[in-house]
Amino acid sequence: MGRENIFKKLNKTGTTFITLGIVLGIISLFMTLIFLTDGFSAPLVIFFIFLVISVLFIIYGADYKKGENSRYLKKHPGILELADSFADPVFENDFIIVSDRAIADKKNFLSIVAIDDVLAVYESIMRTNGIVTSHTVTLCAVDGRNLEINVFAKNRDAKDELVLTISHYCPNAMVGYSSETMEYVDAKRKEYKEKNSKA
């Protein structure tokens, strides 16, 4: 377990984007040709925009399939080394895997972060018309990313245990969502950004 999982996930994501792009492209091209015979109209513009979006999906997907040369890995240069640290995990459950250097979402291996870079851990619940539509445990990373681990429909004990486990392995993380926590996260992210802009 390591960089091979990253490459697998990148390849799978790339295939998904390419497939969506091809399907959307075929539908858009067909509809564009139909409306083109009627002359210029609003639907023609809409389907032409969809056609452009489908081409972007295919380009984006092809980039993901480049593996080590993908833009994603260039944007996150240390991710392969972090992934390699999972060869000898110190903790693993249904949600996460933890090494001595990093923590990752077990279902989405691209969601990986160094344990020292996690600044906050808290539950996040989204509701639409009073109905819970999303329930995650969020990890705020110093580089500005928020990693979300899906805990939808899991019992209270499992959620609490996950938050406590993550906080145990992440020494710089504050637990719980509060104004104090978010001020801490904002301050650390600002320091990080300033430090890296000078480098």
Layout of secondary structure:
Blueprint lengths: L2 H34 L5 H23 L6 H5 L3 H6 L6 E2 L3 E3 L3 E4 L6 E3 L3 E11 L2 E11 L4 E5 L5 H14 L4 E2 L3 H20 L1
Parallel strand pairs: 5-8
Antiparallel strand pairs: 1-2, 2-3, 3-4, 5-6, 6-7
In short:
Helix content is 51%, strand content 21%.
Describe this structure in words.
With 199 residues, the chain is of the alpha+beta class. Helices cover 51% and strands 21% of the residues. It is built from 6 helices and 8 strands, in the order ααααβββββββαβα. It has helices at 3-36, 42-64, 71-75, 79-84, 156-169, 179-198, and strands at residues 91-92, 96-98, 102-105, 112-114, 118-128, 131-141, 146-150, 174-175. The chain has a 4-stranded antiparallel sheet with strand order 1-2-3-4. The longest helix is centred in the first third of the chain and has 34 residues, at 3-36. It is globular. The two termini are 32 Å apart.
SS-based class = alpha+beta
Assess the beta-strand content as a share of residues.
15-25%
What is the spatial order of strands in the main beta sheet?
1-2-3-4
User: Strand-and-helix sequence, N→C?
Assistant: HHHHEEEEEEEHEH
How far apart are the termini?
Answer: 32 Å
What gyration radius follows from the Cα positions, in whole Å? 21 Å
Oligomer category: single chain
Shape: globular
What are the salient characteristics of this protein?
199 residues, alpha+beta, 6 helices, 21% strand, globular
